[in-house]
Amino acid sequence: MLTQTILVGLIVAGAAGWVAWRLLLPASIRARLRRCAGLAATRPAAGCSGCPGCGGGRRNRSEGVPYHMQKD
Amino acid sequence: MTITATIDPPRLALVGNPNCGKTALFNALTGSRQKVANYPGVTVERREGQMISPAGTRVRIVDLPGTYSLRARSPDEAVTRDVVLGRFAEEPCPDVLVCVADATNLRLNLRLVLELKALGRPMILALNMMDMAERRGCAIDVAALARALGVPVVPTVAVRRDGIGALLEQIDRTSASLVPTAAGTADGGWTEPSAQYLRAQYREVDTILAAACPRPGDANVASHRIDQVLLHPAAGLPFLFLILFLVFQAVFSWAEYPMELIDAALSAFSRTVEGAMAEGPLRSLIIDGVIAGVGSVVIFLPQILILFFFIQVLEDSGYMARAAFLLDRMMGGVGLHGRAFIPLLSSFACAIPGIMAARTIENRADRLATILIAPLVTCSARLPVYTLVIAAFVPDRVIYGVFGLPGLVMFTLYAAGILSALVVALILKRTIFKGERQPLLMELPPYRWPRPRDVAIGLFERARIFLTRAGTIIFAVGVLLWFMASFPAAPTDAVGPAIDYSFAGMLGHTIAPLLAPIGFTWQIAIALIPGMAAREVAVAALGTVYALSESEEALESSLATVLAADWSLPTALALLAWFVFAPQCVSTLSVVKRETNSWVWPAVLFGYLTILAYAGAFLTYRTALAVIGG
């Protein structure tokens, strides 16, 4: 029971942190916090990748992979 | 701004007319999966990718919105002009311009080629869609064209990746020849061309074509013949509506079996967890929070994929551009710009790309009007809400021996979204956005068979996006909602379900009086709050709330069955009316802020949608109560 309670506490705290970071914090504050933490700033949205909505502008992981190594 | 040929890696910009295959080429070069479709105006913003050429050089590639000239008339064209001329302060000017030209329409495309060549910058011409040009009997002497233009020319078929190897080799040669010390103005002294300059340019195009394209090829007879039927003044519009109607019928009938399978799998998973874990908060979180919440959204994946299968096929075939043409008169009737069709079409997936696609509209007032109505078009996030309520309250009956009633109701809801968008547009254009209507000028693409690979990739992307949302935003909000609906625990002398004593229960009961006039229960009140994060989260929230409120026997049945027992029909209809107007999700509002550079328009959007949603739900609820009773 205690283990379950601890695990649930961690999951709920993680979810709350994710929601606060991704949904509640304005992008400008998020970028400032990232800079303060020494992390690279996220690049400006390309297409509509900046939104969590449709992901239409998402970049592919294979970017930067030599052409001949890319899958057809 | 100066040309910075010393920059490593070199930067390439893909420039060309709309719908000539720039994004297909970008995808082929970088391995990206950016959206491509057979109509102009799909790309409205610069996109960047990287590749490593055969010589081992890392190259950065920028895909730009299509334009017929550097004389930009709309925001998307201005992006292309500013990148090409190096006017973006934070972005270096491209080192090499890769001009993409549609080989089947060289006369039109060469004008932009000449304009770019006049900039005096390193340039490559990618002669795309060569296969189609050859099929039409168009003979292009590539060497003669290169001589006449004074730039290297590489024939390509981007969608099949033909000619990409040769293009990469040419990119290597051009990149190697970049002089590190070269510096100069990026715009090459570019100014708005005069009429005299344009006439001289047309004559130069004729001269080049005479030398390099002795046989221009036949007109696209097949497309012309199909258009005679599909664009017929009388038959065209009914045919379009028939297609849309059949799509919604298929969404319901085809999805039935896979949805049942997912439902059965989720139920089995839930039973397994129940049997394997001791009773406690973690078990409750998994069963009542994750499976009941996330699971109640995931079940709609088949319907979303079927809907997007049809949209993708219609887009790739070239029919969607015809739909814009067919609906132009209807859009013009309410004062909307003809180009508003593409943003509205994009909004069926999500309002965000729809709002961004409004950049193709030159006039600011028309653009704002389109941005404000785009969220009224039913986005895919509303599909789970509609389907859930329809499954609970609309009998699966066949009418006139052919049409399923659920599909008919769904079609009506989508039509209601479009109709309300047109009515709001009419009001906006008659009041705050007055002005003359601009005519629609659009290059109709040829009909093409949709490529199965492109359709499959499009569907895969759609599934990935949907499941990513389920695994991130819906999961996180579902966990928080479960926590709010489970704590604090009910007192020992509690009467009624424990959820009544929880944070969510207290919040729901506090808001409920506000929503009582429109027939919403306190459970719906709770679901509407996380629904602001993403509309389909409302379904997940209902799943969690009912999982924690209902008895064991009730939980054996699906969420739709539980809702059918708990809600009255007027309440269900009011909820559907609410979601036709549904006050926007946070992401949409933030994109409206970004596109309009003001907080005023997101506030206006949120305000008018909330009023419409409340008024629509109120009227629906009261009318239904009066007609059929509670």
Would you kindly provide a written description of the structure presented here, covering whatever features stand out?
The complex is a heterodimer of chains A (about 70) and B (about 625). By secondary structure, chain A is mainly alpha-helical. Chain A has one domain (about 1-70). Chain A has helices spanning about 1-25, 25-35. The longest helix of chain A is centred in the first third of the chain and has 23 residues, at about 1-25. Chain B is α/β, with parallel strands linked by helices. Among the domains of chain B are: about 10-210, P-loop containing nucleotide triphosphate hydrolases (Rossmann fold, 3-Layer(aba) Sandwich); about 470-630, no CATH class. Chain B has helices at about 20-30, 75-85, 105-115, 130-135, 140-150, 165-175, 195-210, 220-230, 235-275, 280-300, 300-315, 320-335, 340-345, 350-355, 365-375, 385-395, 405-430, 450-485, 505-515, 520-530, 535-550, 550-555, 560-565, 570-580, 585-595, 600-630, and strands at about 10-15, 45-50, 60-65, 95-100, 125-130, 155, 400, 405. In chain B, the strands form two sheets. A six-stranded mixed β-sheet of chain B has the order 2-3-1-4-5-6, with helices on both faces. In chain B, β7 (about 400) and β8 form a beta hairpin. Chain B starts with 10 loop residues before the first strand and ends with a helix. The model of chain B is unreliable at about 1-5 (pLDDT under 50). Chains A and B meet through α1 of A and β2, α10, α14, α18 and α25 of B.
